[in-house]
Amino acid sequence: MPTTTSTNKSTPKVGFVSLGCPKALTDSELILTQLSAEGYQTSKTFDGADLVIVNTCGFIDDAVKESLDTISEALAENGKVIVTGCLGARAAEDGSNLVQQVHPSVLAVTGPHATQEVMDAVHTHLPKPHDPFLDLVPGGFGEAGLKLTPKHYAYLKISEGCNHRCTFCIIPSMRGDLVSRPIGDVLKEARALFAGGVKELLVISQDTSAYGVDVKYRTGFWDGRPVKSRLYEMVQELGALAREYGAWVRLHYVYPYPSVDAVVELMAQGLVLPYLDVPFQHSHPDVLKRMKRPASGERNLERIQQWRATCPELIVRSTFIAGFPGETEEEFQHLLDFVQEAQIDRAGCFAYSDVNGAVANQLDGMLPMALRQERQARFMEVAERVSIEKLQRRVGATMQVLIDHAPALGRKGGRGRSYADAPEIDGVVHLLPPQKASKTLKVGEFTRAQIVQAQGHDLIAQPI
Ligand code: SF4
User: Separation of 222 CA from ligand 1 center, angstroms?
Assistant: First the structure.
């Protein structure tokens, strides 16, 4: 588990040039979507980019020339270049790779439809940003100006900025106060994504529970009907849309305000996934006050217990900070007890570290790094025990699994996720080869599967 990193190191930036036909553009959109989802900044120019991806065309000679010239320009201006697309699959006369023969200094070359290979090359040469407060929220979809390409899961950003001023965070100074997107736009994008094949929509923002606060929950219009710009109404509408398309909706970044109770009721009705990503960061009221956390006055343990009574299937994921300035052993113990009693299903923990420009840097009682890391390790020990025990109880159950990976139609098995697993941050469900010869597994489809074993943070299941 990484410690928090200082945000004075700017977000890694990838320049992207897309040449060629609409199919190549679709590939570009997939790669850009993935880059954004992982927290990379993207741009259409080489300016200030840490590396450049060129998506090439190899159809006619002019296109080959244009692609090779673009690679040459990118190498001259930037130096770090990854090549993908049709030209990347072309062989030279001697049978070697054409791009590598002409431009031996490119970092990697892939053919078309190779999002994962391109991402692997990006990870090798430009590591993923690790800042826990920045990398969880993709930042570039709107800015990239690209429509999201159909894919089986997608992020839906409902607002930008934040009205809170948590002392360890500099997001409000970078992104400003909360600005909610009009409800009609949010729902329109959701419908377009579902219509394009998205089977899981991940609702994100800096503070999802605050949706519409900035516009005083203004009534907007959707499908000719008035709909309030408020979390409850938005979830109702998203749930209804998801039902139409047989898809999932998952909520991230929800704070434990009383208003969320009604949303949990919608989860109990099966409208959206019974999964809440609530970044608690701590449990002790004094630490929460020093952090200036939203909803710090709420009785979080009672709230979670009440949510679980309303919706027993509820999964609670959260992130925490160990060793915040001034944290006493007693306050830390409070946190350990909380994770245990609240039965947090999925927890991440960062050892506190300064973020350049954050107020918390000036707080009294900065703890030695060794102690912060020791507390982080102690926290993870407890949290993992809780999480793994809960997973063990799934053995024997049948769950709906959304398939993420299934080579050869899943004949050798595959990989997916249940409602309890958000992509990238939670565990996965490893699928065994189907027992019936007629049963196939396809990426982006659902299968029912019987859980046969829990393995660390993951489950192993037999598709049925
Ligand atoms: S709620 Fe706090 S941590 Fe989250 S973005 Fe706002 S200020 Fe930062």
Answer: 29
